[in-house]
Each structure stands twice: as C-alpha cells, then as structure tokens.
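chain below, 514 aa
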Amino acid sequence: MRFVRKEIKRAGRQALRRNFAACLVVGILASVVVTGVVSVQDVTVLPAEVLENVFKATGATGALRVLRGAETTATRIKRATSIGDDSTAGVISGLYRSSRQSGGLSAALLRAVNAAVFHHRLSRTILMVSGLVLSFAFVILVRESLRVGVLRFFQENEVGGAGYQAPISRVLFVWQQRRVWCCARTALWKLLWLLVWSPTVVMLPVKYYAYILTGQILAENPGIGARAALRLSQKMMRGNKWRYFLFDLSFALWDLLGFFSFGILLYVWVNPYRYAAHTRLYEELRSGWLAAHSGDAAAAGLLPGIVVPVSTSGFRSGFGVALTSRANWRRDYTVLNLLLLFFVFSFIGWLYESSLCIVSLGRFINRGTLYGPWLPIYGAGGVAVLVLLRRVREHPLATFFLSMLVCGVIEYAAATFLWDSIHLKYWDYTGYFFNIQGRTCLEGLIVFGLGCCTAIYLAAPLADSLLNRIPRQWRLTLAGLLVALFAADNVVAHIHPREGYGVISETVPSPTQK
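prediction:
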C-alpha cells in the first residue's frame, strides 16, 4: 500500500486543531508519563562510564583514548549549553534536575551491570536491581496502559470528525475496559521478540517497525490478545516498513526545533502533532489492509473500528453541551465586554495566586499590589491577547507562543515600573529556569501561554455569552462601579504600598540609597 506523507500529516494537523486544548493536555501527559523525561547528558555519559570499564578490562587502549576524547568534547558542549544548571526554583528546574539525575530504565540497567561486574558492590547492586524491577513493573502495568489510552484518544479524535471532541478521560480506556493485563502481556511479548532479534543489528530495526502498530491495534481492539496483536501488526506492516521509517524521519526538523526551544515546542505542538499524524497513518494502513481482506470475516473482526457517540461534544452532560455550543472563539468583543473581561481575568488571577499561597504556605495571603481582589496584570494580559491576537486565533500554536511574548512584555514592563517607582519587588524569579533579570521567567510564560489559550478558546467566549445576556444598561452600571473601585484602590495603593509576608519578595534600594 502507498501513502502520501504530506496528505497524512495535513489531515493530522486538521484533526489536532479541531480539539487542540484536549490534544495539548493529552500530549503533555504522553510526553511526561508515557515517554518520560529524557536527558541527553545521561544517555551519553552513562554508557561512557560502562564502556570505559570494559575497555580497561580488555586492554583496548586505543578505543579508550577515543572514548575519553569524545567525553571531553561532550563535556565542553554541555558547559556551553548548560542554561539551567544553576536554576534552583520552579517546576521546570525540578524536572531539569531530575532528568539529569535519572537516565530511565536503560540507565538503571547499565548502572546495575556496571556496579555488579566491575565494582563488586553487592548492596548497591541489590538496590539497583530492586529499583529496576519496580521501574519495569511501572512501565509494563502503568505506562503501557496509558500509552494505549493516549492512542485511543487520538483514534477517537480522528474518527469522530469535525463534530466530535474526544474526552480527555479516554486515556484511562484500558482500565475502563479492564484490559491492563492484555496490554502488559503484549508489551512483554514485544520486548521479548525484540531482545531475540537484538543480536542481529540489521534485523532489529526491521522487527521494531514490524511490531510498531501493536499499540494502535490494542487501542482499537483491547481484547485481541498479545500474540494476535503482534501477528496482525506484522501483516499490516509488510511492504510498509521503509515508508513508515521515512514518515518518522520527516519529524526530524520538528524535533530539532523542539530541542532549540528547550523542549517547549515538543510539549505544545510536536508530540500532539506526531500522535495525530501517526493515528491518521494507522487509519490509512488499516483501511488498506481491510480492503485487501474484504471477504475475510475473521480479518474484519480483528479490527472492529471505533464507534463514537452521536453527541457533538466530548462532554457527557447537557450542561457541558450547552457550554460548548456557546464557546465560539471566532467572535468579536465589544469595548464594554472587554472592560468587564479585564476584571474577570484580574479576579481569576487573584484567585489563582491566592490559592497557590494557601497550598504552598498554608495560609491565605491577599496577593498583588492592590488591596482589592484583583491582579491587573492578568486582566491586562487576557484583554491584550484577545485584541492583539485576533487574526491568529485560527493557529493555536502561533497563539500560544505570541501569548507568551505579549504576557512576557507586560510582566517585564510591570516589574520594571514597580521596582523603579516604589522600589518593591512583588515577584522575583531569580533562581528560576531561564529567567530575565528576575522579572519574568520561562515557567511563568508557559503558564501565561496556556492560560491565554484557555481564555481565548474557552473562557472568554463563555464569559462573553453570559455577559451578553445581561441588559446593556446593567453592564454599563457594573463597569462604572468596578472602574471607580479600581481607581480608588490604585490611589490608596500608591499612597500606602502594600507590603508584608507573602506580598513582596524584597525591597529594592532607591538610586539615592545605592
């Protein structure tokens, strides 16, 4: 069967845009839990440690010199690109450090072999092997089931068409169908056969692509059985392995861009796009194989197809369907409603930051520069992206990155104004990964980008629909009252700036004090 890569990838992008918010959440889940956080440094340094011991034992001094030279070069590259090594605060810094400290399942195996064979550290080996067993159980019982659930989500998103939004809860499909052991057995059999073929370096990638459709097959038919899924994948991939490899290779440039964007692009676009495109490719292969076995009832029973509800929404309640029908994000907003949305976003931002203080500090803190329940930086950012990004709403990826840019400029400008005018730091990102003078940081911008996408595609349209149900005169009165209170709050805060525990980070010396 022949397939056209450009057409399949275009169809994958269309399916992704139809349900971008849910696809983004599932894609991030797949990246963090299913794929795992990968560190390039650990992948290169750990084999070097093991191979060095092997070369010493066998007397291969020439190979040892080459290895040490390559390791020195890698260390220099690492030092030149170690942007986040000194980062100590924030979620991204934690992920960065943990990814460097753990090389995954293969890293644990190599460390165990290295300790047992070359260092004779029995207790350390026992601990490593125990950790390896637990990691292996997690991969087989949890990660593999989640991976099949993610594939099921993208299959429903593809098959459902323009009028259907696959629910995020579909990632739990394997547990819902009680087929965890079936997925585990399939993963074990697949791993076993790959290990059998691993000594033959040439045949290993061939067999890898022969079994590559087992996850998609299980997502469509979770009760098919391990051996049947592997055999069916082999049959469907006959004559398609090389083309499938070229299809994978076509994402190389996207992966490179994701690397240079510090992984952000991978999370917000490349990985969801890859899943959507591969799901479309599976549909093409499936259709071709069923067409070639059109008279075989048993073959048709192996791939029963995906049936999605008739509902036009991924929600399962009438209230959810009603909300979704009002979320028309292509709308235009009136100046009056934009003013009211400013206060809505400001209040949501205040709730968000106050809730973070309750969780992290264990007490309620009235966050922000003002005394009222609003954080104007959230309102300004939300209204700004609604107005400035109106022409790019059709492109969610561009909307995300431009939202990060707009909010970053606003946050940096606000921090500079506060630091220079009243000499108080209401936020300081020093120590966060990729921060700019402590005024803004990558982690905060990612949160702003996701929040702005949520506002543009869901929250703002719903809020606008609700506001339009209020008589215009009442909206004018409400807006006037809020503006008056907001102005008074600004005057009071200017005369008596807010300080105290959890409100400011530190006091900035004035030029005369310096």
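The first helix runs from residue 5 to 18. The two ends are 74 Å apart (CA to CA).
thats it, cya
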